[in-house]
Amino acid sequence: MDGVYVKAGLEKEKAAVLVVLAALRDGRKELVAVVPGHRESTEGWSEVLRDLKTRGVLAPTLVVGDGHVGIWAGLRNVFPEVQEQRGWNHKILNALDKVSKKRQAEARRLLTEIPYAPTQQDAEQRKAGYQRWCRQQGLEAAAQVLDRDWERMLTFYQFPHEHWVHLRTSNPIESPFSALRLRTDAARRFKKVENATAVIWKMLLVAQGRFQRLHAPELLQEVAHGATFVNGVRVMEHEWRVAA
């Protein structure tokens, strides 16, 4: 789930378009909603999700999105049982905003190592290392960025390792918008939000044909049926109880 902004409508501010991309049990990724909304509000996202529920969409196992409050508040209104994964791209960019330009290369290196740690425990250690580096540089604000929503940044470790590449970020939605923004920017400003939404729908449907399928789709059945994974590895129930 993600919200994107286009120049449309009568207001000076850009209009929000709320996009939901679903991963199906056969590994395909399919657009299920592209809806104009009001600044990614809680009610806007709630309406999108209620509509999906009315159309027969069952509660997903996991939702990936950025840190916008409206997404998660709307999700809790409609599918409160769903697990949440916050996107790492947005988190890294938010952290880099707190770092001076001359230190950003080192900060980026340390930050990008965290979500690629082989285990959750390693990710915790890399986070601590980044925060030590920040404090040595006098960058307390940059260190604190990682503390917000930290547990939700690591949810992907509870899913198959083969799926992590798809779960760390909302890139499947964000990447096609590079071309979309060129198109919408060239149009200067759409008179109606509905016109911009129609263009976005059509361009995303074309991009959908090139979406990468989820790796190891056979594992999606296990995930859907509540299988337990620890650090990406399937754990039998009795093994999990011993480990706990």
Description:
The chain is α+β, with helices and mostly antiparallel strands and 244 residues long. It has a domain at 2-87 and 169-213: Nucleotidyltransferase, domain 5 (2-Layer Sandwich). The protein contains 13 helices and 7 strands. The protein has helices at 42-54, 69-78, 88-96, 104-113, 120-136, 140-145, 150-153, 164-167, 171-174, 177-186, 193-208, 218-224, 237-243, and strands at residues 2-6, 15-23, 29-37, 62-65, 83-86, 229-230, 233-234. The strands form 3 sheets. It has a 3-stranded antiparallel sheet, with helices on both faces. Strands 4-5 form a two-stranded parallel sheet. Helix 1 (42-54) packs parallel to helix 2 (69-78) and helix 4 (104-113) packs antiparallel against helix 5 (120-136). The protein starts with a strand and ends with a helix. The relative contact order is 0.16. The model is unreliable at 240-244 (pLDDT under 50).
